[in-house]
Design goal:
Elements (H helix, E strand, L loop, with lengths): L2 E6 L5 H17 L9 E6 L6 E2 L2 E2 H4 L4 E8 L5 H19 L7 E7 L5 E2 L2 E2 H6 L1
Parallel strand pairs: 1-2, 5-6
Antiparallel strand pairs: 1-5, 3-4, 7-8
InterPro entries: Tautomerase/MIF_sf
Protein name: 4-oxalocrotonate tautomerase family protein
């Protein structure tokens, strides 16, 4: 039931949406053990001349970048799982976008079960019922 909010310095295309979503669905299921059928992904595409790193536009640096955060229920994944997830996600975006700026970020956000949910129920409620 994680949700991923993704920002990518690229031009939007159905093919790119599919590549990014398949990468994230694979990693989120395989490494974090989250169910594909309840994983949601929202992708925003941002022009490289609207993305600044270190005071310089990505277009000036001839680089690409991405940022995404994923919200998961606290205490459901280990530090090692999250570290592997971040490593493989960075490598996956490097393959997809190419020429990736090192200042591309991934935020695995642990959210308290009583404060997070979907379908009108918290994760804590789902755990107990």
């Amino acid at each position: 039931m994680p949700i991923l909010n993704v920002k990518v310095s690229a031009e939007k295309s159905p093919e790119l949406v599919k590549q990014i979503s398949e990468l994230l669905l694979d990693l989120t299921g395989r490494i974090l053990k989250k169910k594909r059928e309840v994983t949601a992904i929202a992708i925003d595409f941002i022009e490289r001349d609207s993305w600044v790193v270190g005071g310089h536009l990505l277009s000036e640096q001839n680089k690409n970048s991405f940022y995404f955060d994923i919200k998961i229920t606290d205490e459901t994944n280990t530090k090692d799982e999250k570290a592997l997830y971040i490593k493989e996600a960075f490598a996956g975006f490097e393959r997809i976008l190419g020429n990736l700026h090192e200042e591309s970020y991934i935020y695995v956000q642990d959210v308290r079960a009583a404060s997070y949910g979907y379908g009108g129920h918290t994760q804590e409620y789902r755990y107990h019922h």
